[in-house]
């Protein structure tokens, strides 16, 4: 028979182990939220057509954003891997890129979706280096198609800085929500306020 002190030790060790496991899972579950938030802030501060690739790297370091760099783009993407693995939410992805041409950031893209094929929400945000968007010659264009389907946002370098930041404010908590976000309106509420 186990002595009460040994039983207490076993319970204490099991409790500590449980706390450690929960803390570790929480860190990895919440990390994409914070990384995505920082990445969106970085993209909001980037000036398309003016920010050099060297300056973008320096800004990324200042914002605490890790980059994956290819020959003509920086990838800052995040997804809810822990929630997917544990089957607690459908796949939620925020694909964020800064395209480069001739050593300068030439475009920003943020595509986000919920569900394996974007069946719950799909958001496409693009900044072009000219005013030639699908909406014509305008600084901002927001086209939500329905609350659960695709929301398109286009803007250009002349769009005021505060508006750009506003247009890049996705609900990053969708990356750590049990059950996931169920609509574009929930993932990108700002678009529905602008439309």
- Contiguous helical run count: 6
Task: List the helices and strands in order.
Answer: HHEEEHEEEEEEEHHH
Helical content (DSSP H or I, runs of 4+): 25-40%
Approximately what portion of the residues adopt beta-strand conformation? 25-35%
Give the radius of gyration: 21 Å
Structural class: alpha+beta
Q: Give the overall average pLDDT.
A: 83
Instruction: Provide the number of structural domains.
Output: 1
Shape descriptor: globular
Distance between the termini: 70 Å
How would a textbook summarize the main sheet? Answer: 8 strands, mixed
Give the beta-strand count: 10
Uncertain residue segments: none
Write up this protein.
The protein has one domain (30-194). It is 38% helix and 26% strand. The strands form 2 sheets. Strands 1, 2, 3, 4, 5, 6, 9 and 10 form an 8-stranded mixed sheet that branches. Strands 7-8 form a two-stranded antiparallel ribbon. The protein has helices at 4-45, 53-63, 81-85, 161-167, 184-187, 189-194, and strands spanning 68-69, 73-75, 78-79, 92-101, 104-114, 121-127, 132-133, 136-137, 140-144, 150-155. With 195 residues, the chain is α+β, with helices and mostly antiparallel strands.
């Amino acid at each position: 028979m186990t002595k009460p002190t040994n039983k207490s030790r076993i319970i204490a060790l099991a409790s500590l182990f449980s706390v450690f496991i929960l803390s570790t899972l929480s860190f990895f579950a919440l990390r994409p939220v914070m990384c995505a938030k920082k990445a969106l802030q970085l993209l909001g501060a980037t000036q398309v057509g003016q920010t050099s690739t060297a300056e973008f790297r320096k800004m990324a370091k200042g914002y605490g954003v890790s980059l994956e760099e290819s020959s003509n783009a920086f990838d800052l993407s995040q997804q809810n891997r822990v929630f997917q693995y544990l089957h607690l939410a459908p796949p939620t992805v925020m694909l964020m890129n800064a395209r480069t041409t001739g050593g300068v950031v030439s475009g920003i893209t943020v595509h986000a979706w919920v569900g394996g094929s974007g069946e719950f929400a799909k958001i496409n945000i693009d900044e072009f280096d000219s005013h030639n968007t699908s909406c014509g010659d305008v600084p901002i264009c927001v086209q939500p198609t329905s609350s659960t389907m695709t929301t398109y946002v286009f803007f250009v370098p002349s769009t005021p800085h505060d508006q750009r930041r506003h247009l890049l404010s996705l609900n990053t908590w969708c990356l750590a929500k049990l059950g996931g976000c169920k609509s574009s309106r929930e993932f990108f509420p700002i678009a529905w306020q602008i439309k």
